[in-house]
Design a protein that fits this description.
alpha+beta, Ubiquitin-like (UB roll), five-stranded mixed sheet, 15% helix, Ubiquitin-like_domsf, Ubiquitin-like protein
């Protein structure tokens, strides 16, 4: 188990991500600058930590990374974010399976579904 010293052993050409779950649990993973947010989600899903068992998700497709308060698109690479090599960067990892209910996120969902609300008048 990591005692907090892992980040000093990060290879110079790699990026160490410390991922934080909503529950507050953390785990560190090493990635290449060419790895995308989708690659990271799949790797974490395939190597799900034992002590994250309660937070296990059904698919890597619902895992989302948040960096500096923004959701990362699946094709964004760590290199594109200009993250420092050989250092530890903190990101949040959340599961987003479905969109919020229309009544809780009113305006945004109305814009998306506005065109499908049609009627036939006879």
């Amino acid at each position: 188990m990591s005692n907090g010293k892992m980040s000093s052993n990060v290879p110079a050409d790699m990026i160490n991500l410390r991922l934080i779950l909503v529950s507050g649990k953390t785990k560190e993973f090493l990635f290449s600058p060419n790895d995308s947010a989708s690659d990271i989600a799949k790797h974490v899903y395939d190597n799900w930590p034992m002590d994250w068992e309660e937070e296990q998700v059904s698919s890597p497709n619902i895992l989302r990374l948040i960096y500096q308060g923004r959701f990362l698109h699946g094709n964004v690479t760590l290199g594109a974010l200009k993250l420092p090599f050989g250092k530890t960067t903190v990101m949040h990892l959340v599961a987003r399976e479905t969109l919020p209910e229309p009544n809780s996120q009113g305006q945004r969902n109305r814009e998306k579904t506005g065109e499908s609300n049609c009627c036939v008048i006879l």
